[in-house]
Amino acid sequence: MIAVIGDRDTVIGFALSGVKNGRVAENKEEAKDALKEFMETPNIGIVIITEKVAELIRKELDNWKNQKTLYPVIVEIPDKKGVMEREDRIEKIIRRAVGVVPEELRG
Question: How much is the pTM?
Fold first, then answer.
């Protein structure tokens, strides 16, 4: 089964597509409670969470990801406003780690 945590519009959208396990999280406590509930529900295989809500509970998400070996899988998605810009995108981190100079810095 799939569960979704996010803003009202995202949860309603998934509900309309048949996802029955959804929780609206408007603050950190609601997000933490929803995550705990879904991670401890035996038949939940995928937890979808919006990026903005995930950022509210990044520490808790990382803890759950480190505790669980395979299931449920946590998937972060953009909300209706689109992809969040983060300070360090994965691509930039990898480039920095392997010593690749971005095109904009090449002479």
Answer: 0.72
